[in-house]
Amino acid sequence: MPEHPWEISVTENMREQAAQALESELSKLFGRARSVSLTLAAKVHPGLDGASYALLLHLNDIGAVRAADVVERTGLDKSTVSRQIARLTELSLIERVPDPSDGRARLVQLTETGSERLAKVRNDRWQKLRAMFGKWSTDDLSEFSRLLGKLNADL
C-alpha cells in the first residue's frame, strides 16, 4: 500500500495517459495500414480492393484450400468470403481447381499471374520496410517484434 494517497492517483494518471497515447498511435497505424493495403492492392491489380487483397495474401500463405476452410481460418462471414473469391477469380488472380483428395470438391489457389504480381508487390514492400527499419537498432526491432506479438496474441 502506498505511503501517501496521492501516489495512487499519480500512477493511475500516468497509466491513463500512456493508454491514451497508445490508442492514438494504434489508430494512426491502422489508418496507415488501410491506406498502404489499398495502394498495394492497386499495384497487384487496379480492380483489387483492400479486403480482397487481404484474402489474396492469406491464400498465398496457406496454399490451395477449400472455400469453407477460408471461412473457418479467417472468421469472416461465408457470403463475404464468397464475394471476395468471386472477385479474385474474376480478376484472374485465383482459380478453382479439383481437390485431389475428393474429386467432388474444389480448392481455391492463386493463379500463376496472381502469384507473380503478389510476389513483386511484396518484394517491393519488403525493400521499403528494410530501408525504414535499417535506421532501427537490433534491440529496438526485437522489442517491437516482441510487443507486436504480445498484442496480436491478445487480439
Report the helical percentage. Answer: over 70%
Relative strand content:
5-15%
Biggest sheet strand line-up? 1-2
Q: What is the radius of gyration computed over CA atoms, rounded to a whole number of angstroms? A: 21 Å
Strand-and-helix sequence, N→C? HHHHEEHH
Please work out how many helical segments DSSP would assign: 6
Pfam family, one: MarR_2
Organism: Actinokineospora xionganensis
Domain HTH marR-type: 19-153
Protein name: Winged helix-turn-helix transcriptional regulator
Could you characterize what this model shows?
It contains 6 helices and 2 strands; from the N terminus they run ααααββαα. A hairpin with a 2-residue loop joins strand 1 and strand 2. With 155 residues, the protein is mainly alpha-helical. Helix 1 (5-44) crosses helix 2 (50-62) and helix 2 crosses helix 4. A two-stranded antiparallel ribbon has the order 1-2. The chain is 73% helix and 10% strand. The protein starts with a helix and ends with a helix.
